[in-house]
Fold:
Amino acid sequence: MNRYLIKGGKVIDPASGRSKTEDLLIEGSLIVARFSEDRGVKTIEAGGLIVTPGLIDLHVHLREPGREDEETVISGTRAAAAGGFTTVCCMPNTDPAIDSVSVVEQINDQSKKSLIDVKVIAAITKKSEGKALTEMGELVDAGVVAFSDDGAPVTDSQLMRSAMEYAKTFNRPIVDHAEDLLLAAGGIMNEGYYSTILGLKGIPAAAEEVIVARDTLLAKLTGAKIHIAHISTAGSVDIIKRAKEEGLSVTCETTPHHLALTDESLCDYNTDYKVNPPLRSMGDIDRLFEGLKEGTIDAIATDHAPHARHEKEAEIEVAPFGMIGLETAVPVLINAAKKYGLKLEDLIPKLTTGPARVVGLEAGTLEVGSNADVTIIDAKAKVKVDSSIFESKSRNTPFDGKDLTGSIKHVFKGGKQIVIDGSVI
Structure:
C-alpha cells in the first residue's frame, strides 16, 4: 500500500477552509489523519511549496474522436497531469460529436487508460447542429456531467428553453457557448482600437453579452442551472452578477489567457493569439479580476484547444481559433494575478471547489477520507516555457519562450504519484 508524508507544505484546502503549513498524509488512495502503520512511508519535502487539491478543468478539447493528430484522450490527459490537473471535462465538438451513448462509451474506454479522471460533457443537440435535442436521458445514464454545444451557440431560443427544461429534469447544467453568430460573423479579434488599426474585422463585446443575457433570462424562466463558458467581457460579468443577485442558478468561468492577454497581442498577427471569444481590452481584464474577487466568476478553465501546426501557420483570417493551455495555466495565472494583488492561493478555489460544484463532482478537497488527488506547486520557481517538451500533441501556445513564475512539482491521483519533480511518469 502506498504511504506518503507530504511534509511542511502550505496546505490550501478551500473546501475545509484550511490554509496553513502542515503535513498531509496519504495512505492507499485516501487522505488520512494518521497511518495505520509506519512502515514504508515515503516523505516528500514540501517546505516553501503549496499543497492543494488536484486541480479541476471544466473545459478542455481532447479532439478524440476525429482529430487524433491534434490531441487524444491519452495525450491530453498527460498534458493535464503536467499542468497539475487531476480531473478534466471534455467538450463534445469532436467528429463525430459526443451526441450518443456509443461515443461517450468510446471516450470512457480511452479514459480508463489515462492517469487522471475524464468527465464527459455531451452535446445539447444532435451533431451540435442546433436543430434537434440529443437523447439526454440516455446520455445521463452513460455518465455525462453536463450538456453543451461548445464551439457554437444554440441559436433557437425555444430549443434552448427545451434543453434547459430537460437538463433540469436530469439535474445537469447546460454549459453555454455565448456567441451571437450574426454579430460575430467574419470577426477575427476584439472590436476596438486595435482591430481598427490592424484592419481586421472585429467581434464586439455585445456578441457575447447578448447570448449571456438571453440565457440568463431563460434560466429564470425554466429554473435550470446554466454555466456560461469562457466569459471575456466586463458586460458579461455584470449580467451574471445581476442574475446571481436574483438567485438564479447561473455560474461562469473565465480562462487564464483572458486574464493575462489583451487584444494588443494581435499586433504582430501571431495566430496563436487568435481565440474565441477573442482577447479583449485591459478594462475587460480589470472587470474579470473584480469578478473573481467578488465571487461572480466561479471557475477558471483553460479552454485547451489544440490545433495542427500547419493550420495555425495559415493567414490570420483563415487560421482556426484557439490555444492550448493545460501546461501553462498555473504560471500564467500567477503572473497575471500579481498586478491585482492576488497570489495563487487566492485563485485555488477557482481551480478546485468552484469547478467541482458546477458539475457536482466529489473532488477538489483535501479533507480526511477524500480521494488523494493532490497537486504540489512551486509558486516561486522561475521557468521558461518550452512547448517542444509539452505532453500535448499540439504546440499552439503564445507563451512559448516566455519567462514565467510557477511550476508543478508533484501530482497524486487517487494516492498514486503521477508527476514527480515536474515530469509525468
